[in-house]
Design brief:
Elements: H1 5-16, H2 26-35, H3 42-55, H4 64-78, H5 82-92, H6 96-107, H7 112-121, H8 150-153
């Protein structure tokens, strides 16, 4: 999900409250919007702004790069550890390829229930699908005559006459 321009304006308005409520214009909102990660949510952006200004003693404005960096940091903290994922796999009885797929889904940020659902409904990612039989095409003769015989192609008067 990406933010709408209106949601981006809300994020910028929250940032602006720390600097005297500067007016927002269309160009600055569009620019800020373009610079944000495509997968951020409004809640993540608002949390990033809150945390940035909670620790900001320099008076520096928060930019779109700061929002992106803070969201990346928050997401990385939310990822489970390898030991935690191993315990989840054990509890669900996942082994081999199923455990690998579950671990991958969890590391992509999916919640345990969603990762388990995806794992259960997915085919083995390492298994090849059976080959589909090739459709046979009719053999074409070099003359492009299809199923015609030589007698159908050559005129009757071209038949060789045998002389005795």
């Amino acid at each position: 999900m990406s933010l709408t321009l209106q949601e981006t304006a809300l994020v910028m308005a929250k940032i602006n409250t720390h600097h005297g409520n500067a007016r927002l214009d269309k160009l600055s909102v569009e620019s800020f919007h373009e610079e944000l990660r495509a997968d951020v949510t409004l809640a993540e952006c608002m949390e990033a702004v809150k945390r940035f200004y909670a620790d900001n003693d320099s008076g520096r404005w928060m930019g779109s790069g700061d929002v992106n960096a803070m969201i990346r940091q928050l997401r990385n903290k939310a990822k489970p550890s390898e030991a935690e994922i191993a315990r989840e796999c054990d509890a669900r009885g996942l082994e081999g390829d199923a455990a690998w797929l579950y671990r991958r889904q969890r590391m992509l940020g999916r919640q345990p229930e969603e990762a388990a659902r995806i794992t259960a409904s997915s085919r083995n990612p390492l298994e090849l699908e059976p080959a589909k039989p090739k459709r046979r095409t009719p053999v074409r003769h070099f003359l492009g005559a299809g199923d015609l015989g030589l007698g159908d192609i050559l005129p009757r008067h071209a038949e060789p006459h045998l002389e005795n």
